[in-house]
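Entry 14. Structure prediction run on the chain below.
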Amino acid sequence: TIITINGGTITAVARTTGTAIGGGTGLVQPGGEGIVTINGGNVYAYNYKNSSDVPSSAIGGAGSQDVAGSLGYVSIHGGYVYAYSEYGTAIGAGSSQKTQGGDAVVTITGGQVIAQSGSGAGIGGGSSYTMGGSTGTVYDGGTATINISGNPIIRTGSIGGGTTGHTQGKIGSADITIAGGDIQAQFVMAAGAKSPPSFAMSGGTIRNSNVDDEEYIHIQKKGGAVFLGDGTFTMTGGIIKNCSAVQGGAVYIDSQAGNSTFTMSGGEIHSCFATGDNATKGHGGAVYLNGGRVQMTGGKIWNNYSVNGDGGAVYISNGNFFMQDGSSEISDNSAQKGNGGGVFVSSAGSEAQVELLQGLITGNSANKYGGGVCVDMGLTSHVASVIVGAVGAEEDNTTPDISGNAAMLSGGGLYVRGDHANITINGGNIYGMSASNARVYGKNGSDFYQ
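Output returned:
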C-alpha cells in the first residue's frame, strides 16, 4: 500500500491486524507492507487492540498472527502527526504474535511527531510477542533504519529496534543517524539475529528522556537517551541533556563481545543522571560501557551525576578509556555516593588501559576515591596501565589538565588501585583535594606519585 498525505486533517482508527494508515489486514498470512509519506496536514492515527490479540502499527506495516510482521516505510517531512498503537509499534513495522517482528525504514525531516505505544517501540521495528524460555525458536524484534535531520519535533518513548517477548530474544538491530531535531526519546538497538547496530549523532538535541516516564513507554530501563548492545556510537555533534535511567543516564552500551565503542569528537552530554534501583547501583551518570572502549577526541561531558554508584560522568567495566585531544572536557560531574567523579574504570575479566593524553578534567567530585579519575582493579590479577601525558608532550604544551577535582577519601585528581596497576606520568597538571591530600594515589603495589 502506497499512501501520500500532503495536507488536510485526517483521522484514521483501526481495531484490526492491519494499520490505521498503511498495510492491510493479515492473520495466518502476512499483512500488507506500508509505504507512507506525510508532507503536511494534521494526521491522527489510532490502532487499538483487536479480538485476536495480533499487534499492529498505527502508521506503516501491518501485523500478523502466524508470520512475521510486515515492512514499514514511513517518511515524515512536515505537518502534525499523532500515532497511537495499543499493542504494537506506533510508527514503523508490523509486529507478530508468534514469530519475528517486521523491519522498518523511517525518515523524519520536519513537522511535529508524537508516537505512543502501549507495549513496544514508539517508532521503528515491530515487536515479536512470542513467549519462550530455554526451548523453542528464539525470535528477535524487527530491525530499523532511522534517519532524522532538519528541524522536526519528536516526542515518543523508544525509537529503534523492536521488542521481543522471548526470554532469550533481543531487541532488533538498528542503524540510526541523527543530524537535527528536537527529540524526546530513548534510542534502542541490539545485535539481534542480524548485523551489529550503529548510532551516529552529528546534530540535534535529545532531551528530557526518563525511563520511568508513564506517558511515553521506554523499552529499556538503562540508557536514558541511548541503549546500545554490541555496536558503535559515534558522536560528532549535537546535545544530549536532562535524561535519566537506572544506569547510564544518557548512554548505556552493553557489549557481550567486548568490542563496542563510544567515540566522541564533538557535541555535549550534560545534566543527566543514573538513579539506580533496589537491585542495581546507579553507575554512569552520563555514559555506561560494559566491554569495549570510550574514546574522546573532543566534546564535553559536564554536570552529570550518579546517585548511588560510580562514575559521575563515565563508568567503564571491562573496557578502556582514551582522552586524546585538547578540546575534550569532563567537568563538574559527581559520584554522590561512589568513586570516580569524572571517570571510573574497572576490569575483572581483562586488562585495562587508561590514557589521559590531552584535555581537561576539572571540577569533578567523588564521595569516596578518585575525584577526577578512579581506576579500581580490585583483587583481579589483570594489569591496568594508566598513562598521563604523551611522551614529549611537555615540550609541545599538549599535556592534560586534571585539576580542581575533589575526593572525600583519597586521590583527589587520580586514584589507581590494583596489585598489577602501573601509572606513568609523562607530564600534565594533576591536582585535586582529598582527605589524604593525594593528587595522584596508587594503592596495592602500584607505582604512585604524590
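The longest strand covers residues 174-189.
Filed with the rest of this week's runs.
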